[in-house]
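During the reporting period, our protein records have gained a structure token line. A sample record is set out beneath this paragraph:
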Amino acid sequence: MSKLPITTSKTTHGNRSNGGDFFVSKNSKLYLSDGTAFDGLAPDWQTGSFSGEVVFNTGMTGYPESLTDPSYSNQILVFTFPLIGNYGVDVNATESDKIQVAGVIVSEAAAGWSHTKSDRSLIQWLHSQNIPIMTDVDTRALTKYLRTRGTMSGAISDIPIKISDIKLEQKFVSIDAPVTYNKGGKKKVILVDCGAKENIVRSLVAQGLEVKRVPYDYDYTNENYDGVMLSNGPGDPTDYKPTIEIAHRALELGRPVFGICLGTQIMALAAGAKTYKLKYGHRGHNQPCLEIETNKGYITSQNHGYAIDGKSLPKGWKVSFKNLNDDSVEGIEHVSKPFFSVQFHPEATPGPTDTAWLFEKFRGKL
């Protein structure tokens, strides 16, 4: 098997991948905002420069779910596992209706793939949505560099670019108008969509709940509902000012509120706490967390670049989970009111489902 479904010559490769794709490759670079550059290859059809925040994911599998996770919007995703794409792509196993990342960087992209539910190769899928990819990159060196110096912006380009050309803007990923699922369910939950993964919807519906999914800046506080779910999403939580203000009013109403990932940061800010940016974030599905009350450990799926400052939590709030790698806050809870949230992803996809019981806990509070 050839190493890549693209070649380093300017003629098409004689061997064909299982996806039926022929590619010619060319030299490309990842330019980081501190002036460092990493070499690699890119498909010949890929032209121009593509900017994003450069982050890494430690997962061995789950690339279709990760690439369609709205929390990765505006980010160039580096996969630390050396071979990506070996089981192709099943477009039904995704977490949104499109690829969300700004770019993909791998050491090796599988030339062949095999899975009964997949119908295309990773590179075919990226090509169909004009998402750039770099292969043959020393992702181990790149990851070590980011771990040492921290997450930074960058650009994938086949032509030299200036650092000043790397510009990022905050992107909000949300629906345009409310949508209801499982109408007539036992209880009604408002899902605030800041970039919600589809499995959050599926997990709530599986609990027999009616789910009204609303835009991130939608004011639901005057409506009839039993509880609120604050979803995951991309970017700096402090940029979600309307979401925080509305969540603050929701907390004052006293009805159950459950937050996931960005949602836990929004809950903290709505309660009066502070957040900060992590050096390189937590992204992957092997993050160990400890539930403080029970002293029980869980392996969790995570994708975030910010965290809550536990010391800033106001009276009445407590830290419920902590990360066992760096002791950062992984969950908060009110000591008497039905408010709780977790920094990790109990809905998984990808990753372990060890903490799926949190959806049952939420249903029990409604």
Notes: The chain has two domains: 25-165, 179-365. The chain has a mean pLDDT of 92. The longest helix spans residues 241-253. The radius of gyration is 21 Å.
